[in-house]
Amino acid sequence: MEHIKRVLSFTRRALDDYQMIEAGDKIAVGVSAGKDSLTLLCAMAELRRFYPVPFELIAITVDMGFEGADFSSIQRLCDELDVPYHVIPTEISRIIFDIRKEKNPCSLCAKMRRGALHNAAKELGCTSVALGHHFDDTVETFMLNLFFEGRLGCFSPVTYLSRVGIKLIRPMIYMPEKDVRYFASKAELPVVKSPCPADGNTQREEMKQLLRELDRKHDGLRYRIFGAIQRGEIDGFKEIAGMQGKKAYRETEEE
């Protein structure tokens, strides 16, 4: 697949730095049908061909139950990539919007989607679930926790879920969103816009806009925040030689 070299550079470095894969792992990519998860799917499918640690790969989509949801284009992509694809039907949208009528649905929705994804992965014999959180997601999550919860915290590059006995990995933590967007456009990935009524109207979207404005005034701010997360070893992050600052990430893009 064209244009994937830069994607592979970012993902492989994260996989190596955090030893995300063990020999014989069966990894489920959580596919929401957005640009991030589809980019991750393509990267993992390509890496499967030559990564020194052998692994199996499947893709899982949690169907929220929104009317008219169509994942046929995702199925075609998975067929092209030779990745088995599973759609897990749920009634999450009806529970949240029709029954509970949640005013702030995102937290509960995310919890229910995670539960459905993890359980499905376990039932399908997977040892790991790969999620498409990228560099900007990392910085935004850290800042959201700081602003709205008053704590220093983030998701982890690798998390073991003892309840279901699987591992969560985030291979795109080094990859800026602009590079994800570029690849998704050039590769013509079948991105499906979220039908969720809360999409684009969240605290995360507010934080994204705030960081964008601040980064315009203070070039490299997001990279310095990411560096602070690494140096502070927040939630499993660690300082990696050669990966500090904006220059290092630009060099990764050019590899």
Report what the structure shows.
The protein is of the alpha/beta class. It has a single domain (5-254), classed as HUPs (Rossmann fold), CATH 3.40.50. Helix content is 49%, strand content 12%. The protein contains ten helices and six strands, in the order αβαβαβααβαββαααα. The chain has a six-stranded mixed sheet with strand order 3-2-1-4-6-5, sandwiched between helices. It starts with a helix and ends with a helix. The model has no long low-confidence stretch (mean pLDDT 90).
Could you state the order of secondary-structure elements as H and E? HEHEHEHHEHEEHHHH
Give the mean pLDDT: 90
* Count of domain modules: 1
Gyration radius over CA: 18 Å
* Alpha-carbon distance between the two ends: 17 Å
Read across the widest sheet, the strand sequence of neighbours is: 3-2-1-4-6-5
CATH superfamily: HUPs
- Strand residues, percent: 5-15%
Give the helix/strand class. alpha/beta
Oligomeric grouping of the chains: single chain
| Basic shape | globular
**How many DSSP E strands?**
6
Could you list some keywords that capture this structure?
single chain; 255 residues; alpha/beta; Rossmann fold; six-stranded mixed sheet; 10 helices; 6 strands
